[in-house]
Specification:
alpha+beta, two-stranded antiparallel ribbon, 21 helices, 6 strands, elongated
Length: 514
């Protein structure tokens, strides 16, 4: 009797329900993120929040990072709850799970597409396991698409989401700007929508919405503009490119290709650059034709892609977490397109054959499925790799230091920028030779100076001489020590080289007077 009930209940499980995707994603995601070893870009913001001396000091420190305030303020609130960096990962997991839940429950894509997208490279790896502010982009863009119809009554909800998106990260600012222009274009050119809005809304709604968006943009731009003494310029240590460079142009177009198909073309190979750029342009043109009967979503796709591309070419080609926003723009444009009836306003001036439209619809579906399958393969591979190979050797190193009772020793650590994970996991500060003082997070500004290993040993020697109570020093390096001093006794303790990030492999030494 019990077996029959189990079989009956199992047979009706909603394997084709969006909730099946959400539950599996949530469980696997929690396993993956708790297994993930955080690296410096994940823990440096935590350290900034933890060790800033005041609110004003926090804002000043954030400005050197090149990111808006939302992520840092979120971490500040989380730290009030649990003073342990694991809370970052739980929070980040929740952001991504909610994003995927919104996508699966409210997007217009079919079940197969939802499944492939959810376990694709960006949702299942880049914006899930690596706890940074870029997951906010997915959350707020998808939330915007979900409540997009609310603009017929009020723009306030959309304005709040656009404000949050603008203050999540620089690419979120680009997306927010593009979506704001899309709303403005629709409002100006769609008289029917404008009349419907004015007949249903409060008088102050449009004014309030505009104020929210403008204030959010000003705040974001102010914060991400680095101070004058920042020599890394918020992570952008290259200048603006204001002339035409064909190789760089193809490289930038290749970032669109990489966002869709996850392959970054080799910069030095012309053939790779040309082929990948041609494929990327084919996908873009196919998407433009697909959206040609949905002018508003077409406008957003053009503006969103062009704004990010302009930044990619002029300033910063970026990493997957950055140019992945090309992919989010395409998904959002297709989503918004489902909110509109088909219109021939753009096609009536062109003699378009019906079979061409059929051709475009067929091939766009094929290309979209290809993209989703590639993303799915990349997501499963990257997620699985992170389970086997630690992203950083930081957590294993910190656990060894704690178990060996070394966490209370005087620690000299270098390179400072690569030591943030250890400072976060051990919940303490180190002596940084780059600063010549105790510290935890790293700001690339005047007063910080990169040092060679010989200089590190020289500073350790001074510390041992000037501090009578200091019998020996625990030295942590992210590169194997290859110099020596006759007046110092250096004994290797242990090294930790299992890490995907090659400059976050750690080497521990005891250093004492000879």
């Amino acid at each position: 009797m019990l077996n029959q009930k189990i079989i009956k209940n199992t047979s009706v499980l909603p394997f084709h329900s969006p909730w099946f995707i959400i539950i599996i994603f949530s469980v696997l995601g929690l396993i993956g993120i708790l297994n993930h070893s955080m690296w410096r870009d994940e823990l440096n913001p935590w350290l900034i929040v933890r060790d800033s001396e005041s609110f004003g000091d926090l804002i000043t420190n954030i400005r050197y990072e090149g990111h808006p305030v939302l992520w840092y303020f979120s971490l500040a609130i989380l730290r009030k709850i649990v003073d342990n960096p694991i809370i970052i990962q739980i929070f980040h997991w929740a952001i991504t799970v909610v994003s995927v839940a919104i996508f699966c429950l409210y997007s217009p894509f079919n079940y197969q597409q939802k499944f492939l997208f959810s376990f694709g490279f960006f949702p299942f790896y880049e914006y899930l396991l690596i706890s940074r502010n870029y997951a906010f982009s997915m959350l707020f863009i998808f939330a915007f698409c979900t409540i997009f119809s609310s603009r017929k009554r009020t723009y306030a909800y959309l304005a709040i989401l656009l404000g949050l998106l603008a203050n999540s990260n620089a690419y979120g600012l680009f997306g927010s700007f593009s979506l704001s222009l899309t709303l403005l274009a629709e409002f100006c050119f769609d008289s029917k929508h404008r009349q419907q809005y004015f007949s249903q809304t409060q008088k102050y709604d449009s004014f309030l919405s505009i104020i929210i968006i403008i204030f959010s943009f000003i705040l974001s731009i102010y914060i991400i503009t680095p101070p004058t003494d920042s020599y890394l310029h918020g992570g952008l240590n290259n200048n603006w490119l204001m002339q035409l460079d064909i190789r760089h142009l193809l490289k930038s177009i290749g970032r669109i290709f990489a966002s869709y198909l996850l392959i970054i073309p080799a910069q030095k190979k012309w053939l790779d650059l040309i082929v990948c750029a041609a494929i990327a342009l084919f996908i873009v043109i196919l998407t433009l034709m697909k959206l040609s009967k949905k002018p508003v979503s077409l406008f957003f796709y053009i503006i969103g892609t062009c704004v990010i591309f302009a930044f990619t070419y002029l300033r910063f080609t970026g990493m997957p977490r950055h140019f992945g926003h090309f992919y989010l723009v395409m998904i959002a444009a297709l989503w918004l397109g489902s909110c509109y009836q088909e219109s021939t306003v753009l096609l009536k001036n062109f003699s378009v054959r019906p079979n061409l439209i059929t051709f475009v619809q067929k091939w766009h579906y094929i290309v979209l499925m290809l993209i989703l399958c590639v993303q799915f393969g990349g997501g499963i591979y990257s997620f699985s790799r992170d389970l086997v190979v630690p992203f950083s050797a930081s957590r294993e190193t910190a656990q060894y230091i704690q178990k060996a009772g070394l966490d209370n020793e005087f620690i000299v650590a270098s390179r400072d920028a690569n030591m943030a994970p250890l400072a976060g996991y051990l919940n303490r500060k180190f002596y940084y030779p780059e600063l010549q003082k105790m510290g935890s997070f790293t700001l690339f500004k005047k007063g910080r100076q990169d040092v060679e290993q010989a200089e590190i040993l020289s500073q350790i020697n001074s510390l041992l001489i000037n501090k009578d109570e200091q019998k020996k020093i625990l030295l942590i390096l992210n590169k194997k020590l290859n110099v020596n001093r006759n007046d110092l006794k250096i004994v290797p303790i242990k090294d930790f080289q299992r890490g995907w990030v090659d400059n976050e492999r750690y080497y521990l030494y005891w250093v004492d007077e000879a």
